[in-house]
Amino acid sequence: MAHHHNHQVKSYNRAFAIGIGLNIAFVLVELAYGLAADSLALIADAGHNFSDVLSLVLAWGASYLATKAATDKRTYGYRKVTILASLANAILLLLALGAIAWEALHRLWNPQLVEGMTVILVAGIGVVINTLTALLFLSGQKHDLNIRGAFLHMAADAAISLGVALGGALILWTGWVLIDPILSLAIVLIILLATWSLLRESMDLAMDSVPQGTDLAGIRAYLKNLPGVAQLHDLHVWALSTSEVALSAHLVVRDGTDCPKLLQDAQKQLHDAFGIEHATIQLEPEDAVDCPLNP
Length: 295
Known about the structure:
Layout: H1 13-37, H2 40-65, H3 81-109, H4 116-136, H5 145-174, H6 179-206, H7 216-224, E1 229-239, E2 245-253, H8 259-274, E3 276-285
Helix pairs in contact: 1-2, 1-4, 2-3, 2-5, 2-6, 3-6, 4-5, 5-6
């Protein structure tokens, strides 16, 4: 068997600590002003930002657990917790969206006066805080679904806070109070669209599906065409965590094959070309008794 290990995970402890601190402070400010101004858009955004605080806490905890060493019981360690955290964050956000949508529909039938200037000022602060927090996770969001979840939450919040501020300006200009619940429903729709892909991908990884962006057809073709390989079977590719991909495969090799070189080349190419961090390859002689895992 050939193994490749590269378990060094970049620490985002500082980013999480700063992001959580900023967002807790903003949630308190936004909720207080939302109640004072009787703005559902601000209250809805405060509720969503609070769910983001919880999501950041979950993501931070998962990132920390992912660095813990493997044990006799958990031989892969705790790295898959990052997938569970991504899934929990998506579900948490969907529940928050349902509550916001319910209240917004109620306000459509019972509109109330909103202080537009308060909405503008508080939402403007939100644009700044959410943008700064999103930037903390910008570098890691392309390679880690757990970090991408944090980044998407913050980036979406920045855009939504900007929309809330514009809504406050429209209320000041037109005096039309229905803008507030309509804007809240728009917030729900935007976040729902952004969250759906996160939920779908997290669910796939939790079920050991091939990670998004992994070229399974290319991997299969590469392994089958290695020098000395007569047959490939029992190929599996799955996610160890939101940032690490694992592979296992059985290769039937012909007599005279340079097995050490084959394993070394396969290990390197799987890592460099296909992003496989942990490869386990079993070699079987061509004239051996059939492998029970070979269909």
